[in-house]
């Protein structure tokens, strides 16, 4: 059961971060503020406001969007972006909404790589941000998705995990297909990532360009016939070599043909509520529920903890 994928709880440490008011300002004031904070940073280019709500915001006041369109952020990617920001400054504003649950904080719509680069490497003390009003966290994520698609910044794993979040939020494959202009056949390939074990996904995250949706589709077929260890070994071999995709496809077919095992059939069902969705696939349950009322959230959390104490299992890990 995964009831916490919606709006993540804000920890005490996060809530205790220093708050500096972020008032709307003119473009000239924003450029002066940002450029004076980093003497070596080149001036921000001309950005016409046209009534937009543009502000200078500390990166530490910006939180991740639970429906975020990107899945893969490597340390190398963040360091490269931090170097670029330090040398060339900020070219375009990031996009945020006011946090729906925490006053004085923001939630990212587009520009999470830049935000993380500033937090991790102190690239810039403040970022120019356009604050969007009247849109939900889910719609803000779609804004980020469309921006990333226009910049060709998504890998297939990013797309697949973003679409899974939309399904969990109540969208149907037909609705996602219409909005993305992607065929249902290709969407079915993207859904293959969700069938893969976490250990295989870890391998894919380290080399996402190597594992497009076709590779995920064939690995997803193998997992229905073979043990998880064989799929992990195959994904590892493919990730660490320059062998072509055709090799992976052939290896998957060989494993399926030699398994002598019929595909595992998993029963599944989906129950939709006015405020969420419960999905069951075989032994796995995924719950996505929106509870705006604080008292209802507290009561639900208590009962959920009691239920998990009965059916959940915990793995002891060193701190």
Q: What string, H for helix and E for strand, traces the elements in order?
A: HHEEHEEHEHHHHHHHHEEEH
Tell me the structural class: alpha/beta
Reported CATH architecture of the largest domain:
Alpha-Beta Complex
CATH superfamily of the largest domain: Conserved hypothetical protein from pyrococcus furiosus pfu- 392566-001, ParB domain
Measured between the Cα atoms of the first and last residue, the distance is 24 Å
Q: Which outline best applies?
A: globular
Quaternary status? single chain
Q: What's the CATH topology name of the largest domain?
A: Conserved hypothetical protein from pyrococcus furiosus pfu- 392566-001, ParB domain
| Total DSSP helices | 13
Give an overview of the whole structure:
With 319 residues, the chain is α/β, with parallel strands linked by helices. The chain has 3 domains: 12-150, Alpha-Beta Complex (Conserved hypothetical protein from pyrococcus furiosus pfu- 392566-001, ParB domain), CATH 3.90.1530; 156-259, Orthogonal Bundle (Arc Repressor Mutant, subunit A); 268-310, no CATH class. The protein is built from 13 helices and 8 strands. The strands form 2 sheets. Strands 1-5-3-4-2 form a 5-stranded mixed beta sheet. Strands 6-7-8 form a 3-stranded antiparallel beta sheet, with no helix packed on it.
């Amino acid at each position: 059961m995964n009831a916490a994928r919606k709006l993540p709880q804000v920890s005490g440490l996060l809530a205790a971060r220093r708050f500096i008011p972020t008032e709307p300002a003119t473009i000239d004031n924003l450029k002066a503020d940002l450029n004076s904070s980093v003497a070596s940073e080149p001036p921000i280019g001309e950005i016409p406001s046209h009534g937009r709500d543009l502000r200078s915001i500390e990166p530490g006041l910006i939180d991740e969007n639970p429906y975020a369109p990107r899945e893969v952020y490597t340390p190398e990617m963040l360091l490269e972006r931090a170097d670029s920001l330090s040398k060339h400054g900020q070219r375009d504003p990031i996009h945020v909404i006011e946090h729906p649950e925490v006053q004085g904080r923001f939630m990212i719509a587009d520009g999470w790589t830049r935000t993380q680069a500033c937090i991790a490497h102190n690239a810039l003390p403040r970022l120019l941000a356009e604050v969007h009003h009247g849109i939900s966290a889910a719609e803000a994520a779609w804004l980020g998705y469309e921006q990333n698609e226009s910049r060709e910044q998504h890998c297939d794993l990013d797309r697949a995990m973003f679409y899974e979040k939309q399904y969990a939020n109540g969208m149907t494959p037909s609705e996602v297909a219409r909005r993305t202009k992607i065929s249902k056949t290709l969407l079915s390939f993207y859904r293959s990532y969700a069938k893969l074990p976490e250990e295989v996904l870890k391998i894919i995250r380290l080399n996402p360009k190597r594992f497009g949706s076709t590779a995920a589709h064939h690995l997803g077929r193998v997992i229905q016939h073979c043990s998880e260890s064989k799929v992990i070994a195959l994904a590892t071999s493919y990730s660490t070599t320059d062998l072509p995709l055709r090799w992976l496809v052939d290896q998957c077919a060989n494993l399926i043909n030699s398994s002598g095992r019929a595909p595992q059939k998993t029963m599944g069902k989906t129950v939709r509520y006015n405020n969420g969705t419960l999905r069951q696939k075989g032994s796995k349950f995924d719950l996505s529920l929106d509870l705006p009322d604080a008292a209802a959230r507290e009561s639900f959390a208590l009962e959920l903890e009691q239920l998990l104490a009965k059916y959940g299992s915990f793995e002891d890990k060193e701190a």
